[in-house]
């Protein structure tokens, strides 16, 4: 058993605090990773605060993990000691169902095993995430990370990156596509970078008028302040694809009206309350609304390789773990450009 320092939430109402746990000893196909950086996803806040229900405590959050391989099991083939690797939102799945076989492990029929706030497939071990010094993961769920990019800015690719790359690819976004990104947060700013890289005409649709300059710097061509009804009206029936990356409750129909004929609204944001959607907004222009969850292991590797090739990383503010509770509050106020990343070396500081 491997002694591991971490930060955990003991309940939905207590701040994160130092915590100790044991990782399993290596099995044949396990990779033992010393964690260097872990991004803070809004899903961490939702789960720590039990906003989706069913949260399990103590909970060590964190599913945007980058680190170094420090040991490998006897049968590991894909990784060597010393290599830089990543772990994202899942650490296991059944590996046999029709979706797992199609490299869509995130949609495993039995349910994927989350990196934290989940029970592992042995039926008893609580999975604990990346706000910790080390992790042991089966090699199938570990990714190769190029050393050519700044590793702290790579960490958010493991969730914010793949969660936006996958639906934009699925929607076949290219130079003919008008893409609207709703919500310029951690996911939203990655969506802008990918949509721009795929050649699309990109618009940020935001509740924060002060983000316009940033949106343009990220490569967006246009900006809509969504609380201004005149601006929203101007873009009625304009977009082919909308990517909704909003973390808070909001009115989906208001955005659906922006879709052109056969336009798709792809939902990745997961607010606490289910939305009311007007069927009239859907039947007009034969619109559809769909959802997307992270990406499979093969596609996540493809995304990381694409980022290495095109020099795409997240815009990050690196913090010591002692500032994690403050970071959560700042995220809720929109005071972050655009992803916090924890420097895990700080776990050794008081
Ligand atoms: P984040 O960094 O906090 O960004 C959320 C953004 O939502 C904010 O920057 C803000 O953008 C917008 N927003 C906030 N309140 C709003 C409101 N009342 N109305 C409209 N827009 C509002 O969060 P994140 O880490 O990107 O995560 C976004 C969501 O995706 C979360 O719910 C998270 O759980 C979910 N998620 C889903 C998956 C998946 O697999 N589907 C994976 C990861 C995360 P503006 O200031 O520009 O309006
Ligand atoms: Zn996430
Ligand atoms: Zn499966």
Mind explaining what this structure looks like?
- The relative contact order is 0.16.
- It contains eleven helices and 19 strands.
- With 350 residues, it is α/β, with parallel strands linked by helices.
- Helix 4 (160-170) crosses helix 5 (186-197) and helix 4 (160-170) crosses helix 10.
- The strands form five sheets. Strands 3, 4, 5, 10, 11, 18 and 19 form a seven-stranded mixed sheet that branches. Strands 14-13-12-15-16-17 form a six-stranded parallel sheet.
- The model has no long low-confidence stretch (mean pLDDT 97).
- The radius of gyration is 20 Å and the shape is globular.
- The chain has helices at 42-48, 98-101, 151-154, 160-170, 186-197, 212-217, 229-234, 252-256, 279-283, 297-310, 324-332; strands spanning 2-8, 17-23, 30-39, 65-72, 84-87, 90-92, 113-114, 118-119, 126-127, 134-138, 143-144, 178-182, 201-206, 222-225, 239-244, 259-267, 288-291, 316-320, 339-343.
- The longest helix has 14 residues, at 297-310.
- It has two domains: 2-158 and 315-348, Quinone Oxidoreductase, Chain A, domain 1 (Alpha-Beta Complex); 161-291, Rossmann fold (3-Layer(aba) Sandwich), CATH 3.40.50.720.
- The structure holds NADP nicotinamide-adenine-dinucleotide phosphate and zinc ion (2 copies).
- NADP nicotinamide-adenine-dinucleotide phosphate binds next to helix 1, helix 4 and helix 5.
């Amino acid at each position: 058993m491997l002694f591991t320092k971490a930060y955990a939430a003991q309940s939905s109402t207590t701040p994160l605090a130092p915590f100790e746990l044991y990782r399993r000893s290596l099995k044949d196909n396990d990779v033992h990773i010393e964690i260097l950086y872990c991004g803070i996803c809004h899903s961490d806040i939702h789960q720590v605060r039990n906003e989706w229900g069913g949260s399990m405590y103590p909970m060590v959050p964190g599913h945007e993990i980058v680190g170094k391989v420090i040991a490998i099991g006897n049968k590991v083939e894909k990784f060597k000691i010393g290599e830089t690797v990543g772990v994202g939102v899942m650490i296991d799945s059944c590996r046999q169902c029709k979706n797992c076989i199609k490299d869509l492990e995130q949609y495993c029929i039995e349910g994927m095993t989350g990196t934290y706030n989940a029970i592992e497939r042995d039926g008893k071990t609580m999975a604990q995430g990346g706000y910790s010094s080390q992790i042991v993961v089966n090699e199938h769920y570990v990714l190769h990370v190029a050393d050519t990019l700044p590793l702290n800015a790579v960490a958010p690719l493991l969730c914010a990156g793949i969660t936006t790359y996958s639906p934009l690819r699925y929607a076949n976004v290219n130079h003919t596509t008008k893409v609207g990104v709703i919500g310029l947060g951690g996911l939203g700013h990655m969506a802008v970078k990918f949509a721009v890289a795929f050649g699309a005409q990109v618009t940020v649709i935001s509740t924060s008028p002060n983000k316009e300059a940033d949106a343009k710097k990220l490569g967006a061509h246009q900006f809509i302040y969504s609380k201004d009804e005149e601006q929203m009206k101007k873009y009625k029936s304009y977009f082919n694809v909308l990517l909704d990356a909003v973390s808070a409750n909001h009115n989906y129909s208001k955005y659906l009206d922006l879709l052109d004929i056969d336009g798709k609204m792809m939902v990745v944001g997961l607010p606490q309350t289910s939305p009311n959607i007007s069927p009239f907004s859907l039947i007009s222009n034969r619109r559809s609304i769909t959802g997307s969850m992270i990406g499979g292991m093969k596609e996540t590797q493809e995304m990381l390789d694409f980022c290495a090739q095109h020099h795409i990383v997240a815009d990050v503010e690196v913090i010591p773990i002692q500032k994690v509770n403050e970071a959560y509050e700042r995220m809720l106020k929109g005071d972050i450009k655009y992803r916090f990343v924890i420097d895990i070396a700080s776990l050794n500081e008081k």
